[in-house]
Amino acid sequence: MKRHKQSGSARPEHRSGPSQRQLRVGEAVRHALYLVLERGAIHDPDLDGVSITVSEVVMSPDLRVAKAHVMPLGGADGGRIVEALNRAAPAVRHLLAPTMTLKFVPSVRFELDTTFEYAGRIGELLEQARARRPADDPDGGDGA
Fold it and tell me: What's the pTM value of the predicted model, to 2 decimals?
């Protein structure tokens, strides 16, 4: 006999985004990473004297992997900085362990945050569109 899912089940089949728990744990990991980076606990020549911003941490559904979006101050040498952080990821995980109250400390993967670059590109496209708009059309041609 086949069992059918009840229509009022507590777990939705299709999720559109991260759960509240993923968001909460991601923010806790982001804060802990900030503290680790701020006190200079990672010893790597490529990271010496570099200020790094952790803009977001995205957690996997099982909370075992944390994807940290980072950007060095000024955006210079981002690739080199991300490589150095990924080399140091096991040490970072070890440094996070005392601050986390999770059953498992997540492994951390670092990625370069491209949000500012993306926003800049959108700004350029909007500026190009404004420049192409005829000067005698104050509404932008929407007919309103």
Answer: 0.70
* Strand stretches in 75-141, DSSP E: 107-112
For the chain, the domains span 20-132
With vertex at residue 116, the alpha carbon angle to CA 113 and CA 129, rounded to the nearest 5 degrees, is 140
Residue 66, classified by CB atoms within 10 Å of its CB into exposed (0-12), middle (13-18) or buried (19+), is buried
Determine the Cα angle at 102 with ends 98 and 106, to 5°: 80
Domain covering 20-132, topology: GMP Synthetase; Chain A, domain 3 (3.30.300)
> Per residue in 100-115, pLDDT tens?
888 889 999 999 988 7
> What crossing angle do the helices spanning 78-87 and 89-96 adopt, rounded to 10°?
60
